[in-house]
Amino acid sequence: MRRILHIDMDAFFAAVEQKRHPELIGKPVVIGGSGDPTERGVVSTASYEARKYGIHSAMPLRTAYKLCPEAVFLPVDYEEYSRVSEKVKNILREFSPIMEDVGIDEAFLDISESAESSEEIAKKIKEKIKKELDLTCSIGISKNKLLAKIASDFKKPDGLTIINERDIERIIWPLPVRKLWGVGPKTEAYLKTIEINTIGELAALPLEKLIEHFGPSYGGYLYEASKGIDESPLVTHWEPKSSSREITFQKDTDNWQTIAKTLAELAKDVADDIKRSGYLCRTVTVKIRFEDFKTYTRAKTMTEFTDSNEVIRKAAFEALGRLELKKRVRLIGVRVGNLKKV
DNA sequence: TCTGGGGTCCTCTTTCTC
DNA sequence: TCTGGAGAAAGAGGACCC
Length: 342
Description:
Shape: globular
Order of helices and strands: EHEEHHEHEEHEHEHHHHEHEEHEE
Strand content: 15-25%
Strand order of the largest sheet: 5-6-1-7-8
CATH topology of the largest domain: Dna Ligase, domain 1
CATH class of the largest domain: Alpha Beta
CATH architecture of the largest domain: 2-Layer Sandwich
Helix content: 25-40%
């Protein structure tokens, strides 16, 4: 049987900030946007002290500010968090070469080939991260990624949870469906309408019913996931499929100069991004979100692959030209897809 | 009144090509 | 030349994740 670890750094961004600004330790710290809670933006990470006030990820900064005006608000410093993240990942790779990155603060580790017990390895990982980086993490251990991820969420912060085959009914089934990876707010709400609230209730549904409600792909996934079945391997290497830049205006705008200037800048940013990482693109997509939050995209696929700023900008403006700008614009973005390595 | 930014994947529809 | 169909590719939108 496989042995998979899911390692989840505790309140990662806030913890990194508290580490380099020790005066923030023990205080409510909120990381998000530009760091100005009177501006548009959402919470990326709240320290555990801030969570006591009801502040959580994805909450608008202005709401967080209302809940706790005395909290320390800081901008997101991706470069610094990436540096620390790399150090964490390097520690993990010392325990197994089979590691899957899941964003900046999470990873899976396949330790099936290790002679040591899973628990011993997990303890050593926690010790090493604590000693070398002064950070804590929560680790879940199970036979697959799906269960390991649920396990790491069980005890936080600084937790260590093992989920065995025989624990599925007792531990997994009473949990709300939302705890299953891949079940978001929409699916949760839909399941509620057919009186399915827990993973166990989902597991009791026959495959045909799930396919009826969700189609063969997602229905099949839910059928297996609710029973703790997940044979998906760790993905240790992947190629990017797209690259994008988008920005939400501080105030909705109908000023064409502003919109055009911003689009040109975003186009240049994505062009620079793919150039730097050595890719060419063939499809350029423009995204517009209006003041009423309605979002539209228009794409242009070219005959030749390119990383040229001018070509991408022209394609972006051509795509934008197919959208009617009758309402004020809240957000504008440029995405390039159909990528090919140079 | 509020709802970021960077991604992936899936589904459905439209368009192109043979 | 017209018509229709099949299958691929492109386009659009939406759900989800961190």
